[in-house]
């Protein structure tokens, strides 16, 4: 198979994050603080990269996010698969790099977003920057990393989000995954399905790392890729379809309040694109028994008839079923197979006025 045939096509509109590392050769020898010569070189390099993305490729500036640093709090030896970063730095060094990156962004386009500081052990470094350095105001969003050691647990992530919430900036968990389930098979896909609900409901934007397997980065990170590497002809894993379905149906929508039994994980959202009204339920059954004949009720939906589309989040972007839903409230019934994840999308073309806030109820039959 030719390289052209085996490599998936890239849609430039899907590119979102550009990580810029201050790790050039002239940085590795720095042990007495980050000097102006380093910052000038770094500023020039970041400016050139961003100009290439915006002016040569034509990538919209609004789709570029630059992360200033990478894990400044990663101590040597903590992660055997990764070298320690930013050895012997000071907070003045961090502030200087933030300043230089901000100036590079301003040189190209003010719509480029600047986030940081991508800590992996806590939030102390970014809170120090925000509280005591003027460069903190340059960050449009606050980012951090976390890898769950086992099970369906993200409590440390939720705790860090609470610590950063007072700053009023968007929060990005832009490097994360499960060290137990990785992105492998149904186990990995179900973990991602659950994690997306957990993070989205907490107001945290998730960006999984890495996107593709890449053997040279080592394990466990290689197996966290959402599709296989060139040896597997870039085959998409079930976890890939989880992310594709989530951002297709839920990522741009307004979250809605809903109630549900404890044996399912659920996220509800609405979209009003033009004259089309859409309400979507993202539902995960992590159990080993099916959830039979569960009734979903939507209050306040305009009209008493709509079309229901059902998507298997682990399989593809194509609907597996379409049918009618009717009533006031609008009601449909579904059975969720054991260890499954589905999206239910109710869609209707209407000229009716839709209230700003709708109440959504989900309850067992």
Straight-line distance between termini: 51 Å
- E-strand count: 15
Neighbour order of strands in the largest sheet: 1-2-3-4-5-6
- Which strand-content bin applies to the residues? 25-35%
| Mean of pLDDT | 84
Give the structural class: alpha/beta
Radius of gyration: 22 Å
Contiguous uncertain segments of 5+ residues: 1-17, 22-31, 351-365
Q: Element order, helices and strands?
A: HEHHEHEHEHEHEHEEEEEEEEE
Helix content: 25-40%
Report the total helices: 8
Gross morphology is: globular
**Biggest beta sheet attributes:** 6 strands, parallel
Label this structure with key terms.
single chain; 26% strand; six-stranded antiparallel sheet
Explained architecture:
This protein is globular. It is α/β, with parallel strands linked by helices and 365 residues long. Helix 7 (185-201) links the parallel strand 5 (171-178) and strand 6. The protein has helices at residues 3-6, 25-28, 36-56, 91-108, 124-132, 155-164, 185-201, 238-249; strands at 17-19, 65-67, 113-119, 141-148, 171-178, 204-206, 254-256, 265-271, 276-285, 291-298, 305-312, 321-326, 330-336, 340-349, 360-363. It is built from eight helices and 15 strands. 26% of the residues lie in helices and 26% in strands.
How are the elements arranged and paired?
Blueprint lengths: L2 H4 L10 E3 L5 H4 L7 H21 L8 E3 L23 H18 L4 E7 L4 H9 L8 E8 L6 H10 L6 E8 L6 H17 L2 E3 L31 H12 L4 E3 L8 E7 L4 E10 L5 E8 L6 E8 L8 E6 L3 E7 L3 E10 L10 E4 L2
């Amino acid at each position: 198979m030719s390289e052209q045939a085996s490599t998936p096509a890239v849609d430039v509109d899907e590119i979102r994050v550009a990580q810029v590392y201050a790790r050039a050769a002239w940085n590795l020898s720095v042990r007495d603080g980050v000097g102006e010569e380093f910052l000038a070189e770094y500023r020039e390099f970041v400016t050139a990269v961003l100009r290439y993305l915006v002016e040569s490729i034509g990538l919209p500036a609004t789709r570029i996010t630059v992360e200033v640093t990478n894990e400044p709090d990663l101590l040597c030896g903590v992660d055997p698969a990764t070298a320690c970063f930013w050895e012997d730095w000071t907070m003045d060094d961090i502030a200087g790099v933030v300043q230089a990156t901000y100036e590079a962004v301003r040189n190209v386009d003010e719509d480029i977003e600047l986030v940081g500081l991508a800590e992996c052990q806590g939030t102390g470094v970014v809170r120090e920057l925000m509280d005591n350095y003027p460069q903190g105001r340059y960050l449009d969003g606050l980012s951090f990393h976390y890898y769950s050691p086992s099970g369906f647990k993200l409590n440390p992530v939720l705790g860090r989000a609470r610590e950063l919430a007072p700053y009023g900036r968007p929060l990005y968990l832009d490097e994360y995954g499960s060290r137990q389930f990785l992105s492998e098979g149904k186990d990995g896909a179900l973990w991602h399905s659950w994690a997306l609900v957990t993070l989205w409901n907490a107001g945290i934007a998730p960006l999984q790392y890495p996107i593709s397997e890449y053997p040279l980065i080592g394990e466990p990170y290689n197996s966290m890729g959402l599709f296989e590497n060139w040896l597997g002809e870039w085959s998409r894993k079930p976890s890939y379809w989880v992310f594709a379905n989530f951002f297709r149906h839920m990522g741009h929508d307004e979250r809605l309040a809903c109630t549900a039994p404890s044996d399912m994980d659920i996220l509800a959202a609405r979209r009003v694109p033009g004259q089309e009204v859409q309400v979507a339920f993202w539902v995960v059954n992590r159990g080993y028994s099916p959830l039979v004949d569960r009734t979903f009720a939507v209050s306040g939906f305009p009209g008493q008839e709509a079309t229901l589309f059902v998507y298997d989040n682990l399989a593809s972007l194509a609907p597996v079923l379409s049918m009618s839903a009717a009533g006031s409230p609008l009601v449909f019934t579904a059975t969720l197979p054991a260890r499954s994840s589905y999206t239910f999308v109710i869609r209707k073309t209407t000229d009716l006025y839709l209230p700003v806030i709708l109440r959504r109820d989900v309850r067992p039959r």
